[in-house]
């Protein structure tokens, strides 16, 4: 009589293979190799150079925030009237010798110093040229764009620092 025949347990089911993407489902940007030419034609990748021009909208937003803080500080008409009604003009001690515009200009230059040094090196290398500035104008323009980009950011930081302890809750909301 016989031995009992046992059947092996069924093999676990393999996970279903992901559906293959059709070539027509992929995005095409015009740089792909096509089988039409048998691979004989290959395009070169596009070389892109980021512009050094400041982002106009970003600068506008930062300048608008600074202007709004300045407006809010002036909005309280009482403050200006009270300052004007002082018996004699008074400048807070320790601020007489400071020029905020000059400080912002120096800070901007310090943040863009590498570009300025590249411009200066370029001018030195082309001393014998008729107009070394014209030869190195690209470096200078990049430096100027950097300074223009940093200026509004630094002014906003200055306004935020000036209004840090302002008791007006609306000014504190604008600082964020």
Tell me what the structure shows.
The structure is a single chain. The protein has a domain at about 55-75 and about 100-175. The longest helix is centred in the C-terminal third of the chain and has 26 residues, at about 135-160. It is about 50% helix and about 0% strand. The chain has about 180 residues and is an all-alpha fold.
* Helicity level: 40-55%
> Which spans have pLDDT < 50 for at least 5 consecutive residues?
27-31
Termini separation comes to 90 Å
Tally of contiguous helical segments: 7
In round numbers, the mean pLDDT is 77
Query: C-alpha Rg, in Å?
Result: 33 Å
SSE order in H/E notation? Answer: HHHHHHH
Got a strand count? 0
Strand content of the residues, in percent?
Answer: under 5%
Shape: flat
Structural class: mainly alpha
Instruction: Characterize the largest beta sheet: strand count, sense, and whether it forms a barrel.
Output: none
